[in-house]
Design a protein that fits this description.
The complex is a heterodimer of chains A (254) and B (279). With 254 residues, chain A is an alpha/beta fold. The longest helix of chain A has 14 residues. In chain A, helix 3 packs across helix 4 and helix 3 packs parallel to helix 6. Chain A contains 10 helices and 10 strands. In chain A, strand 9 and strand 10 form a beta hairpin. Chain A starts with 7 loop residues before the first strand and ends in a 5-residue tail after the last helix. Chain A has a 6-stranded mixed beta sheet, with helices on both faces. In chain A, strands 2-1-4-5 form a 4-stranded antiparallel beta sheet, with helices on one face. Chain A has a single domain, classed as Rossmann fold (3-Layer(aba) Sandwich). Chain A is globular. Chain B is mainly α and 279 residues long. Chain B folds into 2 domains: 37 residues; 235 residues, MetI-like fold, CATH 1.10.3720.10. In chain B, helix 6 crosses helix 8 and helix 10 packs antiparallel against helix 11. The N and C termini of chain B lie far apart (52 Å). At the A-B interface, helix 2, helix 3 and helix 6 of A face helix 7 and helix 8 of B.
């Protein structure tokens, strides 16, 4: 898998649903090989922002946006952007693991098949590599033909990560990927993310501030659709510059 | 006198049990009555021979073939149109005036009596389009008749596919068509097939509409433009004209067994569907 050099630059980005603003004028940079955590209370625009990065919000008929999201200098909302290609390069993992009702193997290679890759050897190789990177290979290597929904919740979520990794994305975006998981499964996913930043950039939305503290290099704090503060995780958690950040971290609201 | 709650409970349960038993008894009685009268006459030669002297003697082979042709072709024509309409309604358009009109139209179509379809088929396909009383006229008419059922059952099945599946597919770089084809239709297939099988059953048992469009010829249909008599119609004519009650019952037995087999198939598909979605 090639190492990513992609930088994503967000400039004055706004997003609304049916006229209701969800993200209000965001400026943020996502650097290569960093793990950026996004924290904030409910309705702070974290998920909307995340789903704007791969244009998944386009599926919502009432979605409108302003500003720019530049991927290596090119606005991903430009008319000539290949949205399918963008989504392959900015791979998304959802809050609940959603294995499609097929075998583990078919789930893994689905993205490749969508991209028109049919050669068995390529599919097998990429599936095995991705399972390795998601720390799942040893647990499923002998049962790739079994239905994916026999796996445990934690395994399903790692399968979903592998299903995205198969496409060799530049950026991994994860929307509260551990919200339904036990601490052991959570730890495995955090370990996987640490290893994955060697090759990818990672954006992790989480409701769990402890997870952000453990599993990120920089943290951004969102509140009511605005970016309040962003900085190195260790610094933000110990010496936040904004009162609102401090209030959230000590549990004053949210 | 006061009746204790426990007694009321027992009475209520007993009452409902009796009503259920009556429902079942009616069904069992009808089935048994027809099968007892008909099955002894269902022989191999009855199934494979052509009728002689208006069906007083001989078998029902041309009717079996006619039924398969008319009903099969009807479903073959209606299924792609119906499924495509359902996909359009659920995946390719936003809810609005157009979808309301299409749905309302489909529901109205479902409520139209079959004799009206027959009349329309006779005037439009048989006369205006010069298809005559033929397998083709009959199947086109039946196709129109079962179309709403196929549209609505397919729509239900497609709606039952979780949105999260679609998001996953889009998120992995799938286009809308790829998502519909590989994820949505694949997951909805058991539900869609159930609707198609039920429509096939309705087409097989229809009489009024086919009498006016496919006609009632006794000979083996040689092409789609030949008139052909279906099993249900054959039964109707045999008993109505008092030609041969034993052969009428035998025809009805064949029909009932075919419909029963189809319903069991539909039920099995539905169960598979429920298991899949439930997991």
């Amino acid at each position: 898998m090639p190492m990513t050099t992609t930088t994503i630059l967000v400039q004055g980005f706004t997003a609304s649903f049916d006229g209701q603003p969800a993200v209000k004028g965001l400026d943020l940079e996502i650097l290569p090989h960093e793990r950026l955590a996004i924290i904030g209370p409910a309705r702070s625009g974290k998920t909307t922002f995340l789903r704007s990065l791969n244009r998944l919000n386009d599926l919502h008929p009432g979605f409108t946006h302003g500003g720019k999201i530049l991927r290596d200098g090119k606005d991903i909302y430009d008319a000539d952007v290949d949205v399918a290609e963008l989504r392959r390069k900015v791979g998304m993992v959802y809050a609940t693991p959603v294995p499609l009702p097929w075998s583990i193997y078919d789930n893994l290679v689905y993205g490749l098949r969508l991209a028109g890759i049919r050669e068995r050897v390529t599919l097998d190789e990429r599936a095995e590599t991705a399972l390795g990177h998601a720390f799942l290979w040893n647990e499923v290597k002998d049962r790739l033909k079994e239905p994916a929904n026999v796996l445990s919740g934690g395994q399903q979520q790692r399968l979903c990560i592998a299903r995205v990794l198969v496409l060799e994305p530049e950026v991994l975006i994860l929307d509260e990927p551990c919200s339904g998981l036990d601490p052991v499964s959570t730890a495995k996913i955090e370990d996987a993310l640490l290893a994955l930043k060697e090759k990818h950039s990672i954006v992790l939305v989480t409701n769990n501030t402890k997870q952000a503290a453990r599993a990120s290099d920089r943290t951004a704090f969102f509140l009511l659709g605005e970016l309040i503060e962003v900085g190195p995780t260790a610094r933000l958690f110990t010496r936040p510059t904004q009162k609102k950040t401090n209030d959230y971290l000590v549990g004053q609201f949210g | 006198m006061r009746i204790s709650p426990a007694t009321t409970q027992r009475m209520a349960v007993g009452f409902m049990w009796i009503l259920t038993a009556i429902t079942l008894a009616v069904l069992v009685f009808i089935l048994a009555f027809i099968l007892v009268h008909g099955l002894p006459h269902v022989t191999w030669s009855f199934l494979t021979q052509s009728p002689r002297s208006m069906g007083r003697e001989g078998g029902i082979f041309p009717m079996i073939l006619g039924t398969l042709l008319v009903a099969g072709l009807a479903v073959l024509l209606a299924a792609p149109i119906g499924v495509a309409t359902a996909v359009y309604l659920t995946e390719y358009t936003r809810e609005g005036r157009l979808t309301t009109v299409i749905r309302f139209g489909a529901d109205c179509l479902a409520g139209v009596p079959s004799i009206i379809f027959g009349l329309f088929g006779f005037v439009f396909f048989a006369i205006a389009l010069r298809m005559g009383l033929s397998v083709l006229s009959g199947s086109l008419t039946l196709a129109l008749m079962v179309l709403p059922t196929i549209i609505r059952t397919s729509e239900e099945a497609i709606r039952a596919v979780p949105d999260s599946y679609r998001e996953v597919s889009f998120g992995l770089g799938g286009t809308r068509w790829q998502t519909v084809f590989y994820v949505v239709l694949r997951s909805a297939l058991p539900g869609i097939s159930t609707g198609i099988v039920l429509s096939l059953g309705r087409s097989i048992s229809e009489t009024a509409a086919v009498m006016l469009t496919a006609g009632s010829a006794l000979r083996l249909p040689r092409s789609l433009f030949d008139s052909s008599r279906t099993l249900a119609l054959h039964f109707y004519l045999l008993s109505r004209e008092g030609i041969s009650m034993p052969n009428a019952y035998a025809t009805a037995s064949v029909l009932i067994i075919a419909i029963l087999a189809l319903n069991i198939l539909a039920y099995a598909l539905m169960r598979r569907f429920a298991v899949k979605v439930g997991r």
